[in-house]
């Protein structure tokens, strides 16, 4: 059987008891290593689990999934995912491949950023569609996701922004020449995401559009959710450009147009500043 096991968001001990029991009896254990990361490394996980882990990068999972599924019809194979197994569509693809090969599967769930963002006090049922913010390059500066932010704001829904992770990425030159040389890992910070968002806002104004988000829109920055050194900061989008939340992983929330009093009271615990001009969203922080 193929087991997809969520590891939670913090460290080695966040795996469920059920998940740990499965890991310890599987013939092979893969660790998905590109959609997210824990606060501890592979060696720490191996020591706690008592098992050797096989790192599975994007290429392995997306292009050579049959290697992972090999003999899973006659033995147990575990595929470990930071957060919850269904936090990325890649893992749904792995299940579909297994099913076509006649391999049974089982999912062991865990906490993910999608539900753990409730730690800041915003109510989960008031979140709209989640968006991803990617690193811009000199030639690629996508803004299309902003339409979803606008729709969420119009519906008084919060937007969870998942920030880009670059792990085992090749430069264009190395990719063209077929050289297996990889760039150092990069993890987008709340500051970088806020700066790109502000540029999109300014671009929309230049085009004569009325942006759904401004410099004074209330946002929430989160870092290392689930870890002991978790950080949360609530303030304007402009303030998010300079707030220091430390190391990865970061997430950003753009709040909806109106707030429940309990949400406002909770966010006041994490307020960067006591004053802001967008009184509807930030009054009371």
From TrEMBL:
Enzyme Commission numbers on file: 2.1.1.314
Coiled coil: none
Reaction(s) catalysed by this chain's protein: 2-[(3S)-amino-3-carboxypropyl]-L-histidyl-[translation elongation factor 2] + 4 S-adenosyl-L-methionine = diphthine methyl ester-[translation elongation factor 2] + 4 S-adenosyl-L-homocysteine + 3 H(+)
Class of the enzyme per the UniProt entry, highest EC level: transferase
MF-aspect GO terms: diphthine methyl ester synthase activity
Binding sites annotated in the UniProt record for S-adenosyl-L-methionine: 9, 84, 87, 112-113, 163, 225, 250
Pathway: Protein modification; peptidyl-diphthamide biosynthesis
Family: Belongs to the diphthine synthase family.
The protein, known as: diphthine methyl ester synthase
């Amino acid at each position: 059987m193929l087991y997809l096991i969520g590891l939670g968001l913090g460290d080695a001990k966040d795996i469920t008891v059920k998940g740990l029991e499965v890991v310890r009896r599987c013939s092979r254990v893969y660790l998905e290593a590109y959609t997210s990361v824990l606060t501890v490394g592979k060696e720490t996980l191996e020591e706690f689990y008592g098992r050797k882990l096989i790192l599975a990068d994007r290429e392995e999972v997306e292009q050579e999934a049959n290697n992972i599924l090999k003999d899973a019809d006659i033995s147990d194979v575990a595929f470990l995912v930071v957060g919850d197994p269904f936090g990325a569509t890649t893992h749904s693809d792995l299940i579909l491949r297994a099913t076509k090969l006649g391999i049974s599967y089982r999912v062991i769930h865990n906490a993910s950023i999608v539900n753990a963002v409730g730690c800041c006090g915003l109510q989960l049922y008031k979140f709209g569609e989640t968006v991803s913010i990617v690193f811009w390059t000199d030639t690629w500066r996508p803004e299309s996701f902003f339409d979803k932010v606008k729709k969420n704001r119009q519906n008084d829904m919060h937007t969870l922004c998942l920030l880009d992770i670059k792990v085992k990425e090749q430069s264009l030159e190395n990719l063209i020449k077929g050289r297996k040389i990889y760039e150092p890992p990069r993890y987008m910070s709340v500051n970088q995401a806020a700066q790109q968002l502000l540029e999109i806002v300014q671009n929309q104004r230049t085009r004569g559009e009325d942006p759904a988000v401004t410099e004074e829109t209330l946002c929430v920055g989160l870092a290392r959710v689930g870890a002991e050194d978790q950080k949360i900061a609530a303030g304007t989008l402009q303030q998010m450009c300079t707030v220091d939340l430390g190391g990865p992983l970061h997430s950003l929330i753009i709040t909806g147009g109106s707030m429940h009093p309990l949400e406002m009271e909770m966010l006041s615990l994490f307020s960067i500043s006591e004053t802001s001009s967008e009184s509807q969203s930030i009054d009371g922080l």
